[in-house]
Amino acid sequence: MKRMIETDLFIDTDRKLAEFLEETSAEPLLALDTEFVREKTYYPKLCLIQIATPVLTICIDCLAPMDLAPLFTALFTNDRTWILHSARQDLEVMYLQDNRSPVNLIDTQIAAALLGYAPQIGLQALLAEELGVELEKEHTRTDWSRRPLPDGALQYALDDARYLLPLWRKLEQRLNDLQRGQWLNSDCRVALDIPPLTPPVALWSRLRGLQSMEPLQQCAALAMVGWRERRAQSLDRPRRWIMSDELLTRIARRLPQDQESLQSIPEIPRRLADHSGSEILAELQNCGETDQSALIEKHLPLERPDKTVLQTLQERVRVRAEELGIQSEVLATRKEMSEFLVGRPSDRISAGWRQEELESLLG
C-alpha cells in the first residue's frame, strides 16, 4: 500500500481512517493525545485524537461523520501499548467512547518523575528540557469543537503527539540504566487501575469540613454527592452547575425534613428546591443505612498523627528520595505518611518498589 501523503494527516473520512489503520496495524507502540471540551458538560466531548508512530503523525476528527468503531477496535488490542503524557484525562475520555481502557500504558509524566522531575511536570517543560523542543502555547485555550479549526491549531494538536515517541526513547534509556523499568511498569499499572470516572465516595472525601460533621450529617453529605452525580450525568452538565460543594454541605448539616425547611436554607436556589426538592428529601431520608455507614467508615479522613513523629518520618523519606535522585513526594506523599502512622497505609506504598525502598524507614 502507498504511504499516506501529507494532506492526509487530518483524517475526516472512513476511507482515510481505513488507510491509516491498515498502514499502522503492525505498530506495537502508539503515542496518543486527545483534545476535548467539557466546560458546559459533565461528560467530555471528544473532538480530536492525535496518534504518532515512528514515521507518521495524524489527527482524527472525531466530530466528522465517520464510523470510529474500527479505530477503537485497533487501539484496544492486547498487543498495543499507548504512550501518553499525564494520562488521566485522556484515559477518561477514551474510556467513555468504548467502555475500555488500554491493556498497556506508558505515561511519560510518570517516567519523568522516576528520573527526578517534578511529579506533575507538563509536556512543554519536559520536551524543552529533554529534546530542546519548544511547543507553541498560542492554542492552549482553543475551542476544539469549532470547525474549521483556527489556523495553527491542527499543528499544535499534532505536536502534542509527534514528540512523545522520541521523548519516551530517551526516558526509557535512562530508566533502564537505573534499572527502574519495573518501577514504571508498576506505576503505570496503578494508573490504569484507577476508575476512569471518579466514584462518589472519593468526591465526598474531598469535601471541606467533613470531619467536623456528625455521623448522620456525613451520611447525608454522601447521599447528596451521589444524587448530584446522577443528576449531572442525566443532564450532561457540570456537577458545580447542579449544586456547589458549599451548598451541598450546608444541606447535609441542616438535614431538612420537609420542603419548607429545605427552602429555608440560605442561598438555595428556589428553582432547585421547587424542581428537585422531593428527590433531595428522599435521598436524605434514606441515608444512614448499614452499607453506607461502612463505606463512610472506610473513607472518612483519618485523625492526624503526632506532628513530631510525622516530621521525623518526612525527613527520613526526604533523605532516601534524595539518595534515589527523585522528589520525596514521588516516593511517599505527606498524606501517605500520615495514613501509615495512623494504621491505614495506602496500596501505593504497601507493595512494589516503594515498599522495598521504604521498608527500613517505616518499620
Q: What is this entry, summarized?
A:
By secondary structure, this protein is an alpha/beta fold. Helix content is 53%, strand content 9%.
Describe the SSE topology.
Layout (H helix, E strand, L loop, with lengths): L9 E2 L2 H10 L5 E9 L7 E8 L4 E5 L7 H7 L5 E4 L3 H11 L5 E4 H6 L9 H8 L22 H10 L1 H14 L3 H13 L6 H6 L9 H21 L3 H4 L2 H10 L4 H5 L6 H16 L4 H10 L7 H18 L3 H4 L2 H8 L10 H11 L1
Parallel strand pairs: 1-4, 2-5, 5-6
Antiparallel strand pairs: 2-3, 3-4
Q: Could you walk me through the main structural features you see in this protein, from its secondary elements to its overall organization?
A:
This protein is of the alpha/beta class and 363 residues long. It is built from 19 helices and six strands. It has a six-stranded mixed beta sheet. Strand 3 (45-52) and strand 4 form a beta hairpin. The longest helix has 21 residues, at 215-235. Residues 1-8 have low confidence and may be disordered.
- What is Rg? 24 Å
The largest pleated sheet is described as: 6 strands, mixed
CATH superfamily of the largest domain: Ribonuclease H-like superfamily/Ribonuclease H
Q: Give the N-terminus to C-terminus distance in angstroms.
A: 61 Å
Strand line-up in the sheet with most strands: 1-4-3-2-5-6
CATH fold topology of the largest domain = Nucleotidyltransferase, domain 5
From N to C, what is the helix and strand string?
EHEEEHEHEHHHHHHHHHHHHHHHH
The parts where pLDDT drops under 50 for at least 5 residues are 1-8
